[in-house]
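Tokens as discussed.
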């Protein structure tokens, strides 16, 4: 069972005059000024948030911002100056030594950046090392270690020695060592930071995969925002001991709390973080139950609304097809009577699934004959993505993604052809009006 961790107004001051140092922080002195004036170092200042059971919670910040100090307080490698850390309802600072040992043995494991494997011990014994320290007997710890090695893809390497393994494989052994005790909480302090980029990405995927098979509460320290965005369910950003912002990757990218956070997210690969539904814009839509008519009405609607395309839906908001002024004119050319919209549908329109990462849209968008429809659950039409949308997304001076669009009930326009003209869609709707238009008011 994964466990929740509540961090309640936790402070850590390194030095023997913590009260004096904390008073100075409250008076607005910087960490550096306090260090110069008092010799006290602020490790963590008033951290107050909850890490939910089963989430990957990433702590980010520049070197010296207090990440390691914070995480070391979670298993009491460092004692807080004040505040409480509550694991599944239990204040861990109130534990007896015996209970603390049990907590570290059973519930919390830690993976470090430079995982010193013992060179003279086999991979299996290295993976079993934590359990050995905890006094688990040999057969049981070897079995647990073997299972942990299998989980990280090193099942066949138990008899090898560390120097026979690549750096990435050695780090896997470190992970296996932490997993061997089957902990509910995994603390990972820059565990992947020393790995080269490809192996690092591989390890991130490995961690996400492990999380699929068994959910643990993972507190992951990183100074790399791409890594944080990729694996974090939520992220805390620290600066000079203070937690500046806690949020999902999406929340942090959409509404950074201040310039510090903004400077962090500047270089982030937003295309890997955001999905098609995050950048979907509203479109001109036509609801048509009568597929045997409507071309003239649709053409007039498109011309009047100064759009290039309209998206034809059935009453259940499922996409039937896409028409353009040109495709309607072409279909109507030399045609006298009623003409169904389907005769004007544009070919080769491949809808986009709402969950597709933006990074994967550049190819399809480049060759798309029109802004592409985005379909959500049950293939429901959500809106469109145009090449302009993609360009805006790439422009780093505007926020990567506008705030979510207000979902408004469909606006039903007056019947287009009140004079009794038969050739009209049953209902027309405008998914976009000036009240809900985004600030940058994008047209297709
Ligand atoms: N044992 C210690 N004694 C004195 N100062 C410390 C000690 N450990 C950490 N610090 C100070 O606390 C601050 C936070 O350090 P740390 O938690 O290691 O940051 P990070 O992991 O984000 O790089 C730093 O200013 C560091 O110098
Ligand atoms: Mg650190």
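Sequence:
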């Amino acid at each position: 069972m994964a466990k929740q961790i509540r961090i309640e107004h936790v402070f850590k001051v390194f030095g023997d005059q913590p009260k004096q140092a904390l008073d100075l922080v409250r008076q607005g002195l910087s960490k550096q000024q306090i260090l110069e004036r008092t010799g006290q170092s602020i490790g963590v200042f008033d951290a107050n948030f909850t890490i939910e059971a089963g989430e990957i919670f990433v702590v980010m910040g520049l070197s010296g911002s207090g990440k390691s100090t914070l995480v070391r307080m979670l298993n009491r490698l460092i004692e807080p100056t004040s505040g409480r850390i509550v694991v599944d309802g239990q204040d861990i600072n109130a534990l007896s030594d015996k209970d603390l040992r049990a907590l570290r043995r059973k519930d919390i494991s830690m993976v470090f950046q430079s995982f010193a494997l013992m060179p003279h011990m086999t991979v299996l014994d290295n993976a079993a090392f934590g359990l050995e320290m905890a006094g688990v007997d040999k057969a049981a710890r070897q079995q647990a270690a073997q299972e942990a090695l299998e989980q990280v893809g090193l099942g066949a390497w138990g008899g090898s020695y560390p120097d026979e393994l690549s750096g990435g494989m050695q780090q896997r052994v470190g992970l296996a060592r932490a997993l061997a005790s089957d902990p509910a909480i995994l603390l990972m302090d820059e565990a992947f930071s020393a790995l080269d980029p490809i192996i690092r990405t591989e390890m991130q995927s490995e961690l996400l995969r492990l999380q699929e098979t068994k959910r643990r509460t993972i507190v992951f320290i990183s100074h790399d925002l791409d890594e944080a965005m990729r694996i974090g369910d939520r992220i805390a950003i620290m600066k000079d001991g203070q937690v500046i912002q806690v949020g999902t990757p999406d929340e942090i990218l959409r509404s950074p709390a201040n310039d510090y956070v903004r400077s962090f997210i500047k270089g982030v690969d937003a295309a890997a973080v955001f999905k098609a539904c995050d950048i979907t814009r509203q479109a001109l839509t036509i609801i048509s139950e009568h597929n045997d008519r409507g071309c003239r009405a649709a053409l007039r609607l498109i011309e009047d609304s100064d759009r290039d395309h309209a998206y034809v839906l059935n009453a259940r908001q499922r996409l039937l097809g896409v028409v353009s002024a040109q495709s309607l004119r072409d279909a109507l050319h030399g045609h006298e009577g009623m003409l169904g919209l389907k005769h004007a549908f544009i070919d080769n329109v491949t809808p986009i699934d709402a969950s597709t990462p933006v990074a994967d849209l550049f190819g399809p968008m480049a060759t798309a004959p029109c802004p592409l429809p985005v379909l959500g659950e049950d293939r429901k039409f959500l809106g469109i993505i145009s090449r302009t949308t993609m360009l805006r997304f790439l422009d780093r001076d505007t926020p990567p993604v506008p705030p979510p669009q207000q979902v408004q009930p469909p606006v039903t326009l007056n019947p287009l052809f009140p004079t009794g003209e038969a050739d009209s869609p049953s209902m027309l709707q405008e998914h976009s009006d000036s009240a809900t238009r985004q600030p940058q008011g994008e047209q297709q």
